[in-house]
Amino acid sequence: MGNGESVSTHYVVQQKIEQHYDKMGHGKVNALGPDAGNFGVVRRAIDQRTQHARAIKQIIKTTPDAKERIQRECAIMKQVAGQHPNIVDFIEFFEESAHFDLVFEFCGNGTLGDMIHSNRICNEAIAAFSHQLLSALAFLRSRGILHRDVKPANTLLIDDRTCKLGDFGTACSLQPNETLFMKSGTPAFFPPEMDILPTGDGYTFPADVWAVGITLYMMLFKGVHPFIDNGGVETRLLRGGDFDAGMLWVYNASCYQLLRWLLMPCPWQRALPETACNHAWLYSFGHGTGAFRLDIPAKLVPDSYGRWGENHYF
Question: Which of 17, 137, 222, 252 is most buried when burial is the number of CB atoms within 10 A of its CB?
């Protein structure tokens, strides 16, 4: 914003929203007090012009490239603002000498991580959130945007059946045939093609789909991460896409199939978000068309050189 305006010109801050994350990317949002979280302090405020509640993320200029990074985040958010019902709306930003203030719509019901850890999530909600996240990713892909930090802590709740994907701090624009080779995001949500870097062929849009797969697993299994063992990510399990789903394959075979499609270790075998949106399991709860019912192919896994094939061992 220009004309010497600051966030205090138009907003009355009511309370700070505490955000804290553990190493798996779990997050908790409440109104108990201030905390810096990963990237900045988030505050609840009222827009004096409209009386609408907003969330204001204040980011301190701690590095020489901070301004460029924040401007990139704002530019990406402007591209998608108000264009998808499951992406948090970006309102405006203010720059001051020592920090930026980014203003977003306020989602007052916490995060998906909160709901998972409260054990109050049902299959109807799991299907709704999965479909909404996949729909958001399909939209972002159509706009050439890779989020790179999809996880329960960055999924904000409007109510117990509606979520919005937020925090585009690591998002980037990506050309259709472009691949990336720099790791970014939350390590526990890295897909195999990112985990094996610098070997391999880099990563692209399927990386976000993998993160939805992990999020789906955590919703199904009360916050348990599919590839965490003894407090850390187990590389062998991650790269092989090997997870323990218990008896899910028996009592909910369709859900198990979707989970396997999202967590296919080879990125070009992984379901596209616009395809996964129409999976039969989601359709059983009224989401999508149900047209996606394909069987899982023999999965490809990476060898020590980053080459994909069957029956590789680590």
Answer: 137
Q: Which residues fall within 8 angstroms of residue 188, CB to CB, at 6 or more apart?
A: 23, 24, 25, 214, 225, 227, 228, 233
Distances in whole angstroms, Cα of residue 150 to Cα of each of 13, 19, 101: 28, 16, 22
CB 151 within 8 A of CB 211: yes
Q: How many CB atoms lie within 10 A of CB 190?
A: 23
Tell me if 97 sits within 8 A of 142, measured CB to CB: no
Largest Cα span, the chain? 63
Structural tokens at position 20 = 């804290």
Dump pLDDT digits (tens) for 119-171. 889 999 999 999 999 999 999 999 999 999 999 999 999 999 999 999 998 99
303 classed as catalytic: no
99 and 15: one domain? Answer: yes
pLDDT tens figures, 247-264: 888 789 999 999 999 999
| 84 and 143 inside one domain | no
Same domain, 181 and 277: yes
